[in-house]
Write a structure and sequence with these properties.
Elements (H helix, E strand, L loop, with lengths): L2 H16 L6 E2 L5 E4 L4 E3 L4 E3 L1 E3 L8 E9 L19 E9 L14 E3 L11 E10 L10 E11 L1
Parallel strand pairs: 1-10, 3-10
Antiparallel strand pairs: 2-5, 4-8, 6-7, 6-9, 9-10
Amino acid sequence: MHFSALLLAPVLAAFAAAAPNFPRVISSSHGTIKQPTAETAVTSGASIPFSYQDSNWCEGGYSPITVWLLDYAPTTANLNSTGQFSDATYYFGAFLVGNFGLGPIGNPVPPATLTMPDMSAFVSGSDMYLAVVETANNCPPGNQPLQYGMTSTQLITA
């Protein structure tokens, strides 16, 4: 091996160790599901109230959120590398919360109600969970990976 390569090898190894690998970044920050409240009874096809107050921990103009229905109590460990639940019972969709009084653009704003999917496969009294994943995409100082915060509330099948 050439002498300069011997000198450079430790520097390159240190740089590689310090270089960002941008895996999924989970944030302890997240918004709050205002509605539905915990233990709300749900049935197939029912319309339930929905309200989410975003955290906007990176102070972006818009906060992307996704809304999910799960048959287990979710944790951030259940999120895949793109901030999604790959085993969700139902996906309500992606929405965009405007901050600082900004109007809607792109994805629709979160709806005031959600329509429950067919839940006939679940026993009455089963626990279901409505989960919201909030994505921060403008965290300072810039060029940061996406960050995902997640919150959920328990629902009961009726």
